[in-house]
Structures are given as C-alpha cells and as structure tokens.
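To fix ideas at the outset, we first show an illustrative case, written as a sequence plus integers encoding its fold:
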Amino acid sequence: MNGLKSLTERQAAVYNFIVEKIQNRGYGPTVREIAEEFGIRSPNGVMCHLKALEKKGAIRRSPHKSRAIELVHDSVQRERGLVLAGRVAAGVLHEAVEQNERIDLGDMFHGPNLFALEVSGDSMIEAQIADGDYVVVREQPTARIGEMVVAETDDGDATLKYWYPEKNRIRLQPANSSMRPIYVQNARIRGVIVGVVRKIG
C-alpha cells in the first residue's frame, strides 16, 4: 500500500473515482468519464494521471481492452461477480430454487486475447445484437465461414458482420433483412464474437 501514500492530491482523487466506479458498477471509468469528472480538457491529461497511478502501483491497465483498469490492492475491491440466485423459466414453468453461488462475468469472458466493443447500429438485430450492446471479441486473424466477426476493410472501416469469403470477393453479411450485404475485395479479421452483454434500463 506504500504506493498509495505517495499519490498527489489530484492522483488520489482520480484513484478514488476509479475505485468508486469499480465497486459500484463492476468496471472502471473511461478516459472520457474521468475527463468530465475532473474538468480535464485533453485525453492526454487523463492518461498522465493513469500512467502515474500505474507507475506507483495503484492500478493495472491493458492497452487492448476497453475500460480495463484494475485495482492492484484487492483489499479495496468488493466481492467479485453477481449472486447466482437460481434459475428462472423462459419456457415451461419450474419451481424457483434459490442458490448460494456467485457468477463472475469477468471470469466467463477472461483472457489476454479478449476485448470488448460497444455496438453502434442495428445491422445485427436479427442475431439479437442491438445498438448499445457490448460484444466480447476473441482477437484472431482467421474465422470459419459464417462466423460473426469484426472485420476491417482496406479503408480502415471496422464492421460487425457474418464472414463469407467468396470466389473473388468477401461478403460481410448483416443480420437484418432490410439491409444488403457489404461486398469488398479485401478485409482483415480483427476477431470472432464470443459473447454479448446487454444492460436493460
């Protein structure tokens, strides 16, 4: 805990804000949220604080993951995960059975090659992926035909679609019957979708 004692007043305030977000909602704040909270105009200003906190051993960050700020000192973190209270029927009714377990979505979607993206648009709505959802992506350069991927075109545009390489082109197929496929000559796979997270309300 010695690293925490060496924090400046400003660094301690940023650190406490990070702790509050992790404890209350399960993941850390974005650079934008920190900037808005402390009136910091430049993202670089926020990054300076985060680098200082990391250097002093207060936090850990992953450059490849969204919102990946972790607290080094586990004593300040609450018990991880959500209470797994039992099962509820979505079809035939069953008696509700209480359980005393926890389920940690972080462990479910955990690994050095996983990252999350926020979905913008409704091109995958028929695959039950809506605007504002988060998809969990396994970073890899290849995919099987028909897998849902994050693909990047030669123009640098990234899109969430089904992957269909054809004879002289690649078809990026939406899951929305009102939209047409995107056809490109070349595209690079950034990763394959392995999960979807949605917050309702």
User: Anything to note?
Assistant: Helices lie at 2-5, 9-25, 31-38, 43-55, 105-108. The chain has two domains: 2-75, 114-197.
